[in-house]
Amino acid sequence: MHIVNAKGILSAQNGINIYRGCSHGCIYCDSRSKCYQMSHSFEDIEVKANAAQLLENALKRKRKPCMIGTGAMSDPYIPLEKNLCNMRKCLEIIDKYGFGVSIHTKSNLILRDLDLLKRINQKTKVVVQITLTTYNEKLCKILEPNVSTSYERFKVLEIMRDNCIPTIVWLDPILPFINDTEENIRGILSYCEKAKVRGIMCFGMGLTLRTGNREYFYKKLDEHFPNLKEKYIQKYGNRYEVTSSKNKELMQILISFCRKLGIMYNIDEIFSYLSEFKQSENEQLNFFDML
Known about the structure:
Layout: E1 2-4, E2 15-16, E3 19-20, E4 46-48, H1 51-61, E5 67-70, H2 81-84, H3 86-96, E6 100-105, H4 114-123, E7 126-131, H5 137-143, H6 150-162, E8 167-170, H7 182-195, E9 199-201, E10 206-208, H8 213-224, H9 228-236, E11 241-243, H10 247-261, H11 267-275, H12 281-289
Helix pairs in contact: 1-3, 3-4, 6-7, 7-10
């Protein structure tokens, strides 16, 4: 890792990334793409040492509280966070100023901060987003080698459910010829049903490949799935969107499942839900008492 003092932390869409780069090692990671202009090795993680102070400065200036999002580009619960606690410091700031938070992660390290998440959720709103790509634990360790397994992430979803914290599952990406099977999709959906997730985000059964992440993905295919790279090149060439030939039937399984259980699956609806800020009734009463 290397440490920097960043100039800013909060994006125009109220998103934060306290780390840049990742050590999870997921073979399909889009954040490796060169279009993001990362000037250092992806595994040489940039740590924004002043992230919490920058966030506090930004939230002080906000006229109204809103949802703060994190995890879109870099998972806030990479292994470094266990000792650095930068995400926890940011959650303390979010709690202090009465904002909500939406967190996207693949790590059960988030459970360390359950006390803060519960406190924030009691006052405003917390949404925990978890990525699930495969129901098969052995395959999971190949596709996502340095991260909590799918079953461990499922247990996170259950714990959030038990603490009344809403969850969204990202069923993404689904890799052609690898995990684009009905058995896999139904396995993940069974986790979603048991955990009573609020929504399932899926952009289609496939993945995206750009310069940077395509090369890494193909390298890992050669290591773990001999001759599969050639199959990808023959079928997809240099396409950005790589869609499974089973997309239509697998999406129908997903949509039917969501409609049956009343789970959100429309992407715009989910994004709207993630950005919608709410205060608890108690917090609203406390605010009016101060007037």
